[in-house]
Amino acid sequence: MKNREGNRPDRRLVRAGTYSKAELDRLAKRLVYGGSGSHKLYPGNYGFVPSINPHPAKSVCDDLRMVLLEEAAQLLAAGIAAEMISAFDPEGSPKYVWAVDGDGEVYEAKTKPPDAVYHGYRLGDDEEAMRRHIRDEWKKRCLKR
Asked: Which of 2, 49, 95, 123 has the greatest number of C-beta atoms within 10 Å?
């Protein structure tokens, strides 16, 4: 798998307070988690046809455990509510949304703006700096609420 860590301006978490609660609420109502068979080892309840087709160069979201569609959607919503997003035009969509599950695993959801349907994956060991940064911010922002 290729190493993704690096200096990518589009893959940066916005500062807390960049967007209002009203903007984040509107965003949460508009964005959808759809998933991708390219990031799955187990089809779960996603309804992919064919059921899965993991791409060898892609991170998978379910390498440690199965992540069902409802949980993935909840992680997306929690990431938006905590403003764990990349910068975006208020009329568009953030390219990235990050969230941390109950086990402390970091997930990244991604889309191609202006699309509002996301797929996600767990950030692996090859991205330790990004995982640490997202976990630290998650603790700060989620304890604040």
From this structure: 123
